[in-house]
Specification:
about 850 residues; alpha+beta; Topoisomerase II, domain 5; Topoisomerase, domain 3; four-stranded mixed beta sheet; four-stranded antiparallel beta sheet; about 30% helix
């Protein structure tokens, strides 16, 4: 290493790396915050924007001048004020010229300045620009010492620290910027509303945010759209931070062919139309959105028009909600009203932003008035000297003619008439034209007008109310000059999307099997056939499993599942898997979060929770009545439907309406029938009251609720049963032993179940060893009440019937039906006994006895 490469130890300085990094980064961060990313609250401009305006002012590019090449404007800005690269300057100028970025553009551009579809602007050598009228108003009076100036980067000229800002740019155009450790997202507003809000604060300094919002209801984006709710606006205005939900504006158009299209005419602020369509196309391709036939961007210079064409028969409202949920057609605008106040970043509520603007305009008007006062006083001083000269014109001419040079003449005039040097010089510079009588009168009139202006300027400076009047007049002028209609609509609050919003409401058929399988199918999959048709296969069930119920429900309806443990679970119909006719469905236990070892004992489809009451029957003879509305708030893990004794279980649930009768049947052949009105309504956690009095070895096996013209089917464990009109069961008091329902003997065995049936129903009986029989109800002849019944199914020795259920009837010759080998002779046989003697009835004790 040579001597010239050696560095002495004295040239090094020991530094703490941590503190040096902190201090250096802090300097960098503050430079970005103050000199690049954040706007000044007074004029709403960042340094590069302000310097572009200053360069255009130097080039005399006013709103009425001829446009100049953008490259020239960028070059002057970079060379005189902003030596940070031409591309950043040009892009800043482009944004100020884009009507979809600025609510009130500050630059009037000619050529390609980009588009809302994301198209980039043309190169600066191809485009031309000049100031837009609002920019000229922002620069107005800058030559009247209204703002401070500072040296530019190389001390060759000066630049304005802030613009006078007659146009309230910060509030009207807002600002977006990302600094170090902070960012600003100041929303734009409507100039009419902004001017009204400023005047309101001028008139009533104690005005609250709520009162300001009466005239300034919310942001007004250049691309329109819909702000959903006022809560976010109020929060942003009160704290300076908030969250606005902005939706695209849409309507539905129907073509002559019947096809519908969703047309978006306004999109959320700052979004790209082509990107939105690309996102929709991705969702359609992935299968997340179905029913879209075509996508088109039909936008032109007159406005946005994004067309989503639907397939025939699709629900436009549902698809619109899906688009809002899954795309940026519903977007969030984060409000962070951060700006520089006295050179420091500050989060500003709306009232403070208005107050800072008023404070700035006060200073501007005051400095302008002082400047104009000084000029007027100087002019009056000169005019007063001219009047003295005109009144003594002969003496003045004599002095001037006798003087050797101008300096001697000036000194003699000052001495002769007591004039100042400025007045004497003005007399020497006066043209002979002013010696005419008409000109002399004009000088005196001009002096009077100037003195009047002086009195006005002094009044403004001495009276604060007059100064505020000047600010008001400026605002009225701005409002009249630039006022336009609000573009962004403010609508009601919207919450998170519920599944109902994303699924079309339509009727479907729900099928539930005896083994606990469930599915839904479109109603259209069951085509209409004439009587005697073959039918279609409704489901391919597991061996020994049959359809227990099939009903039509809306996709927005609920199905309630009750278990033997006294709990209830909900399932939306649209949550039931939609499967084909040949599928057996999905196990219900896999769709609800049921507790282990629970068995579903009742299923109730519900369309309207405000109509009807639920009657719940337990094995121990308890009945509880609760309004259906009490179960209208479903929970994922289910809730307690009825409080049960330790040795009791829920066996039946019926939806009961006014004026119906309730029949409760027991294992030993007793039945009690009572009006529904005798059971009072109770809370959801109640235990219930006694429905029937049971002997020690007796249990409730079922309950029905229906009209007198229906029949009660009773089935016993040895395969015998009967059908009796409900009207034959006379109404008794609730809580008694009731009357004989069927005479239980060793031949027919205990009762295993009861159903209210009509002739069109079909039954399925199942034995302990798995034997099943399916037979039509009309094949079971109606007989008396206190009989042993007739043979329904032949039961082998050691076997017994364990359940009976109603199944959906199949058309004659339908495919996939269960075995229907029911001996007609057996069904139509005479009853084995026909004793009509009733068992002794026991009345309940007086008053209502709680279970």
């Amino acid at each position: 290493m040579g001597k010239d490469q050696l560095v002495s130890r004295e040239s090094y300085k020991d530094l703490d790396l941590t503190s040096e990094m902190r201090d250096s980064y802090l300097l960098y961060a503050m430079s970005v915050i103050v000199s690049r990313a954040l706007p000044d609250v007074r004029d709403g401009m960042k340094p590069v924007q302000r310097r572009i305006m200053a360069a255009m002012e130097d080039l005399n590019l006013g709103p009425r001048s001829k446009r100049l090449k953008s490259a020239r404007i960028v070059g002057d800005t970079m060379g005189r004020y902003h030596p940070h690269g031409d591309s950043s300057i040009y892009m800043a100028m482009v944004r100020m010229a884009q009507p979809f970025t600025m609510r009130y553009p500050l630059v009037s551009g000619q050529g390609n300045f980009g588009s809302i579809d994301g198209d980039p602007p043309a190169a600066m050598r191809y485009t031309e620009a000049r100031m837009a009228p609002p920019a000229a108003d922002m620069l107005e009076d800058m030559d009247k010492k209204t703002v401070d100036f500072r040296p530019n980067y190389d001390d060759t000229r000066v630049e304005p620290v802030v613009l006078p800002g007659k146009f309230p740019n910060m509030l009207c155009n807002g600002s977006l910027g990302i600094a170090v450790g902070m960012a600003t997202s100041f929303p734009p507003h409507n100039v009419r509303e902004v001017c009204d809000a400023i005047v309101k604060v001028l008139d009533h300094p104690e005005t609250t945010t709520a009162e300001i919002m009466k005239v300034l209801p919310g942001p007004d984006f250049p691309t329109g759209g819909i702000i959903c709710g006022r809560k976010g606006i109020r929060e942003a205005y009160e704290t300076g931070r908030g969250r606005l939900v902005v939706r695209a504006k849409a309507h539905v158009e129907t073509a002559k062919s019947g096809k519908q299209s969703i047309v978006f005419t306004e999109i959320p602020y700052g979004l790209n139309r082509d990107r939105i369509l690309e996102r929709i196309a991705e969702l359609v391709k992935e299968g997340q959105i179905q029913g879209v036939a075509d996508l088109r961007n039909e936008s032109d210079r007159n406005g946005s028009r994004l067309v989503v064409e639907l397939k025939k028969g699709e629900d436009a409202d549902v698809l619109l909600n899906l688009l809002y949920k899954n795309t940026s057609l519903q977007d969030t605008f984060q409000v962070m009203m951060i700006a520089l106040v006295n050179g420091q970043p500050k989060c500003l509520p709306i009232k403070e932003s208005i107050q800072e603007y008023i404070k700035h305009r006060r200073e501007v008007i005051t400095r302008r008035t002082r400047f104009l006062l000084e000029q007027a006083e100087a002019k009056a001083h000169v005019l007063q000297g001219l009047i003295i000269a005109l009144d003594n014109i002969d003496r003045v001419i004599e002095i001037i003619r006798a003087s050797k040079d101008a300096e001697i003449a000036r000194n003699r005039l000052m001495k002769a008439f007591g004039l100042s040097e400025i007045q004497a010089q003005a007399i020497l510079d006066m043209r002979l034209q002013r010696l005419t009588g008409l000109e002399r009168d004009k000088v005196r009139q001009e002096l009077e007008e100037t003195l009047e202006k002086i009195r006005g300027y002094k009044a403004i400076l001495s009276d604060d109310s007059l100064l505020l009047d000047v600010i008001r007049e400026d605002l009225y002028e701005i409002k009249e000059k630039y006022g336009d209609e609000r573009r962004t609509q403010i609508a009601d609050e919207v919450g998170d999307f519920a599944m109902e919003d994303l699924i079309a409401e339509e009727n479907v058929t729900v099928t539930i099997s005896h083994e606990g399988y469930i599915k839904r199918q479109p109603v259209a999959s069951f085509r209409r056939q004439g009587r005697g048709g073959k039918g279609v296969t409704g489901a391919r069930q597991k061996e020994g499993d049959l359809v227990a119920s099939l009903f039509v429900a809306s996709t927005h309806d609920y199905i309630m599942f009750f278990t033997d443990k006294g709990r209830v679970y909900w399932l939306k119909v649209f949550d039931i898997p939609e499967m084909g006719r040949m599928s057996r469905g999905r196990a219900i236990v896999n769709l609800i979060e049921a507790v282990k070892d629970e068995k579903i004992t009742a299923t109730i489809p519900v369309r309207d929770f405000t109509k009807g009451d639920l009657f719940m029957f337990t094995e121990r003879g308890v009945v509880k009545r609760t309004s259906l509305e009490a179960y209208s708030r479903p929970k994922k893990g289910g809730i307690i439907a009825v409080k049960l004794d330790e040795d009791d279980r829920l066996i039946a649930v019926r939806l009961v309406f006014p004026n119906q009768s309730v029949v409760v049947a027991t294992r030993k052949g007793q039945a009690v029938r009572f009006p529904e009105a005798t059971v009072r309504a109770m809370g959801r956690d109640a235990r219930g009251v006694r429905a029937v009095k049971l002997r020690d070895d007796d249990r409730v096996v079922g309950a029905v609720a229906g009209a007198e013209d229906m029949t009660l089917l009773t089935v016993c464990e040895n395969g015998m049963g009967k059908r009796t009109p409900i009207g034959e069961y006379r109404e008794t008091n609730r809580g008694g032993l009731g009357v004989i329902n069927i005479r239980v003997t060793e031949k027919n065995g205990d009762v295993v179940g009861v159903l209210d049936v009509i002739d069109e129903d079909e039954l399925i009986l199942m034995t302990q060893q798995g034997m099943t029989i399916r037979l039509p109800v009309k094949s079971v002849r109606v007989i008396g009440r206190a009989t042993q019944g007739v043979k329904l199914i032949k039961v082998e020795e050691g076997d017994k019937v364990v359940s009976v259920a109603r199944v959906e009837p199949e058309e004659e010759g339908a495919e996939g039906g269960a075995e229907q080998a029911a001996p007609e002779a057996a069904a139509q046989a005479e009853p084995e006994t026909a004793e009509e003697d009733e068992a002794p009835e026991e009345e309940p004790p007086s008053g209502e006895e709680e279970a």
